[in-house]
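[User]
If only I could read backbone structure tokens as easily as an amino acid sequence. I have put the entry right below:
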Amino acid sequence: MIDKPKRPKQPNIQERQPPRTLQELINRYDLDNTKIYDFLDELVDALKSKEEAVDEDISTLEQGQTDLQNQINDKNIITAGMSSNLTLSSTGDTKIPLNSIKTRIGNKLSISNNRINIGQGIAHVKVSCQIYVNRSSGAGGAFNINIRKNGSDVASMTNSGVPAGGNRSDNLSSELIPVQPNDYIEYYFYGYSGDVVRYGTGTYITVEAVD
């Protein structure tokens, strides 16, 4: 804290040591000059004002950092997929086994029983998914991907088809779904016997808590 120099009535002019502070300088040489004191007062006031402004900026910055950290802590996102390829043994709906977490932020979304579980404090989620299919034999044809909540379809997409002996990647754009605690999200694929759903970066589902 910067203090304004005092205006001495009887300045000490006998001190032999050189002045070390502004106050000692004034005391030594009897600088009883109104303009000098007024200028010094203004200078100290200006410095104090800047000091207060810096303190306020620091406080604002610290609050911003706290708010940002709270927003990060409130995020809940999970991306899950398979730990190995899935080969269809028959034509029809097949549940994609969500048994591998790719990324996870927060602790309100989890996986168990090959599905994503909704935790406490979540009312809506955004869901998106991707799939990569290889058809090594048989006739070409379309396939479907379906997102189910508690066993019922809430979003779906029909692919234009995979040629025999070919492969195809497709995705379902983000869908907003209302949820409650203990709801669960599953990922289903409708394909043909012998289709191979590739794991890794080709097939996954992402669920993000919105509120």
Observations:
- The first strand starts at residue 77 and ends at 81.
- The CA atoms of residues 82 and 200 lie 7 Å apart.
